[in-house]
Amino acid sequence: MGIFLKKGLASLLAGLMLLPLVSCANGDLYETASTDETARETETRDPQYVCELPAELNFADAEVSILYSDEDGPGDEMYSEKLGLGGLSDAVYERNVSVENQLGVKLTMIPFANAADTAANLVTSGDASIEIFCLPGYQGVPNAFSGYYLDLNQTLYTDTSKQYWSQDFNDMMTMTDQKLQFMATSSAALTLFRLSYLTIFHKDLMNDRQLPNLYDAVKNGDWTLDFQCRIAANAYEDEDGDGSKSSEDFFGLVSGNRISLDGYLVAGNIRLLKRDEAGDLYYNSEEMEKMMTMAEKVSALFNCGGTLCYSGFSQDNIGVYKIIEKFAKEQALMATTQFLSIERRISELADIPYGIVPMPKLMKAQETYHTYVQDRVTCFAISAAVKTEERRDLTSAIMESIAYNSYLIVRPAYYDISLSYRFMQDPESQAILDLMFESVTFDLVPLMGVGGVRNDLRDILYVSNPPIASRTRTWAAIINKEIKNLNASLDKLALREQS
Fold it and tell me: N or C end of the chain: which has fewer CB within 10 A?
């Protein structure tokens, strides 16, 4: 197991000498080489970016263990062995040392491949040896309804209203009239950026064909599924000359029929699970007309003749980068991808004049773009096994400090390093990055796995004439039953918090 600063006090002191002490009270901002100046300037103007942990807060070298998921994507967002490894590793190391300095604590990072199950077992056995959990959302969020985490809104120091926490995630996860919230996510989650869906396109190939400028299309609100379909439909070329379509030919769009399909529901601003005024979940049947429209347009895109669709998890999955590899060979105008794929293949893309745009809107009338973050995004929680007020205060302060220092250190490092500094020099791409990360959107449907909706959509969206009507009728009965049980669980948790 990779345990933070495991080489002892001498290594710790050596590392601390490289960094100044941190204070995030009253706007006294910590600076490192990786601190983003724009972020710091924003904080001086907007108190919502200013951390308000008391400057005098010190927990006298208290030790806290943090559980995280050791998988591709989240595996390096919480732990780094030492300073000097470069890139994101240094930013994560600096962040962790900054938290230790600020609060007078010692952090131990403990990785598990099955982190959510491990967390659940710890809580049910009353074991508080690991107090903070960093879990993949699709595993961790369902466990929130089982009472495995503390209500963050009842802790002393975690302030999820601050802008270094994801407000869309807060809105989704704040439930009941008591405003219970058991999980949150922030810039500490590199997966918040890495698992965001986008479209990458080849600038030169688009220009050679005198196709519309996609940056302008986004700016004008024209970037829709229909717009993308028109581009893709006429782009196919029989590159290998065998007279039939194959993966070796040139396509307008390269995508997939599993993971790549997940972004369209959110990109179309379709919310099947919502909360009523009392904070209870309900099935939003009013979205059915939009669901039908979305299915028709996605099906048209995948069957327009110019789209290459990789099939199955063996070709369209996290850790499998066939789509971005096809694009990197300059055999496609556009590709559906995530930032993680770009990060993993950045060297292959280095000489390609590519640009990025969000996933297309459902229709032009849709007011804003929505950037879906896949359900594996890391979510943070405090173990319900933490019973004493002292330890609750300690863990809530650490959660807040990690979120804040990640905003200052880790987020800009990801922008600058993993997304290529070229983007930072391109005003159009920079504007797109900002637009996408400002429009990050989550969805309870895949996070909770309700109704089998996500898997159903993966099975039918890409086929001709998708049977969406019959599937939606099935969803209604299943989801309403599941929501009844979820709301009952929330009522029990509300009673627990009152006691």
Answer: C
